Amino acid sequence: MARRGKKTAAQKRAEQATRRRRESLLNQAEKADDSGEEKAPPLRPVLLNGRKGPGQPRNVRKGRKGSISKTDPSWAWRTVFTWVVFASLGMWLYSLEMKDLHDTVISVADKLPLSVKNWLESFHAPAPKDQENQDESISIPHDWHLGPDLTKKLYSLDEIKYKQDGPLLLVLIGHVFDVTGADYYQPGSGYHAFIGQDASRSYVTGNFTAEGVTDDVEGLQATDYIGLESWLKFYLEHGSYKFVGYLDGKYFDSNGHETAAMKKFRSLLSWAKEEIEKEGDLLQLFPSCNVDWKAETGSTLWCSAKSGGVDRDWVGFPRKFFEKPDKSPRCACVHPNYLADPRVKEYLSCPSTSLSCKLLETDK
């Protein structure tokens, strides 16, 4: 056995063979330069005694595979993919947290008084004009049966009063509507008496005197309450009239919540519907008349194919209709087939075949 540190004969022979091969390749390269032939390929690094020779990659280690270099394209793609995964997970968790926060804010906001909500909304930037038009074109009429819309404005009595060059505001069962632009409600017209006050009772009685113009609707007949509901739906669903808020008064309090009077109206309306069903739907058989009132001429009654909120294929004649003997009559549009009904009486000032007439004091 050879002593440690000395080369064996086999190792010496291998080194000599390597040197001879290297010299042979160098000679071939010199000859190629002189003759113009293609050069021999460059020498590959050779491991001597298992050690790293010249040109050996630095990441090569004995018994270990090479690690991934940052210059490797796969390293960049793996980094990007990792960031995308973690970013998506973070956004998803954030959205869940924000949804819970949004629900909490909404629940707290619902309990705020209407005046506070209006004050907070005053800080919002107005929407672009085209966006406002788009919102109005797809707006859904408010269903008053669901209760008050607390996003609407709360008006005082002074705010709804008629003012020159101001909006025309009318009130029906505490609901405020802007009817600006409609000829029917201009000063001097028949319906101007409805502007600037809650004259709910006059909508079904046709009484526009100082005593008759009131927001008190108790003691009416069943069909009158149905008529009030029809008027309310008419304004809420009208394309030109705008439902703008509530009146702080008889039917809604200073926070925009329903009062006892509003709850009483709801109960009276439920009672009226039950009565109508019991009596064979009198409102369909004897729909209410249209009523117009002017200070100079008084009240005018007339019938049409849609009067009383009942869409039909006949018009009818204006008559006094006594639903009950102990109740005051109302004006009804009576079909020719029902003119002989004992509950129907003619107005003294109306020709029997006329579709409209002006009431005299003797008819009231």
TrEMBL record:
**Origin species:** Folsomia candida (Springtail)
- Give the region (Disordered) as residue ranges: 1-70
The transmembrane segments are 75-94
Descriptive protein name? Neuferricin
Q: Which InterPro entries match?
A: Cyt_B5-like_heme/steroid-bd, Cyt_B5-like_heme/steroid_sf, MAPR/NEUFC/NENF-like
The residue ranges flagged as biased composition, category Basic residues, are 1-10
Where does the Cytochrome b5 heme-binding domain lie?
A: 155-248
Q: Where is the composition biased (Basic and acidic residues)?
A: 30-41
The UniProt similarity line reads: Belongs to the cytochrome b5 family. MAPR subfamily.
Recorded GO CC terms: endomembrane system; membrane
Q: List the residue ranges forming a coiled coil, or say none.
A: none
Q: Fetch the SUPFAM superfamilies from UniProt.
A: Cytochrome b5-like heme/steroid binding domain
User: Which keywords does this Swiss-Prot/TrEMBL entry list?
Assistant: Membrane, Transmembrane, Transmembrane helix
